User: Fold this.
Amino acid sequence: MAGRRSLLLIEEDERSRDFVRGALSRLGFQVVEVQSGLEGISQFAPGVFQLVVTDLHLPDMGGLEVLRKIKQASPDTPVVVLASNSEVSDVVQALRLGASDYLLKPIEDAEVIDHAICRITNAETLAQQNREYREELERRNRELRDHVEVLQRDQQAGRLLQQHLLPRTPYRYPGGIEAAYRLIPSLYLSGDFIDYGLFGERFVAFYLVDVSGHGVSSALVTALIKHSIMHLLRERPLFAQLDTLDSDLLDILSLINSELLSTRLDKHASMFVGVIDGPARQLHYAVAGQVPMPALVTEHGAEWLPGKGRPLGLFQQGDWQVMCAKLPPSWRLVTCSDGVLELLEGDLLQKEAQLLQAIDQSRGDLDSLCTALHVDTSEALPDDVTILTLRQG
Assistant:
């Protein structure tokens, strides 16, 4: 037991008092001895003694009354009562009044005292840890409430910032490739995010990410994802050469997967990331848990692109595949977050069939597709809705 702790021993019997004092002294206690209940009560003060040991049979007043007054003055101070075999009923009453333990007299084995004190010390330690945990939890809850209030006050600024991070729509690149999107959050901020850009004069890279959940926490993760990708772009050139396109796509997925796992935010994400090689008319892409799959619209109609891969933030390895699709002179690419499926009826297969039909009938045109799905006119969206389109010809 670290340090010297003070203990109040209230016991009239000299032999018992000497034996208990010796055992407690060996345990590291500084023992103050008194022989009567009144003297014990007058000596006791909250915080002065870390433990009280009192006999139930005292010359001037009952030990139960001593116990009651001590617990009234300091409910957290542990009290051990000394009792004879004939005072078992009093022991039961003492425990009901808050006694931490009891010792039956005559006490002839110091280990009995050792065990009782160890039980109390362990219980005190656990209680202190629980108090500290509750205090820390309350402190963090206060901080969290403060943060939430700040976020609530700054929702408008947050939405403007997220919109500022998004690219311009529509945007037309050299070579006639046009990118456009519609992003509508279910709450003030979105867990969906998209971005696209031209690399060199040949490659147009893009992605759509859908973070689990929606609102502030998911929106913050989208900012983390954009920051991570931009940091990777500063470290080394991406999408600069044809022979590194596939590895660049996998590096992006691996980076975001590692970021989500390391932050321990209990967030995962689906992602569609791709690169269009304009001169070669090829689409290189990879999917990570994407539902629904992207659709390619050509003169032959709309078809889901093949591919598979695990979501980001759940597994160390995602088994992602880089796929390549040949593009005709005129094409449309449509990819949606899973919130779009919430606008349709039926099971998953039925919803996907309805969505593919709507994409086909709209010929991949963003405005026409949004009108067909009632994206802009739905009163309450159960999830963030994002549609990203790319087109040429």
User: Anything to note?
Assistant: The longest strand covers residues 203-211. The two ends are 82 Å apart (CA to CA).
